[in-house]
Backbone:
């Protein structure tokens, strides 16, 4: 993953192999994150999902992404 600091918040970006697309789309992640992944530009057969950390919901989504990453 990658962490970027932006003024009053920070962004965490995860890279997932394209073969994980079905798992990501079937997960309980918000539709926006799923759409962001599907529409992300492919790089070395992987695509990214970024989360701007603003509140506890964002933190929960990061935990879900970490769980997917650990399992795969």
Residues:
């Amino acid at each position: 993953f990658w962490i970027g600091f932006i003024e009053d918040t920070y962004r965490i970006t995860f890279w997932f192999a394209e073969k994980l697309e079905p798992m990501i789309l079937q997960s309980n992640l918000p539709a926006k994150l799923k759409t962001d992944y599907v529409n992300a530009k492919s790089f070395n057969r992987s695509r990214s999902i970024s989360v701007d950390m603003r509140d506890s919901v964002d933190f929960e989504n990061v935990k879900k992404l970490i769980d997917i990453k650990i399992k795969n």
Notes: The helical segments are 21-26, 31-39, 56-71. Residues 14 and 66 are 8 Å apart (CA to CA).
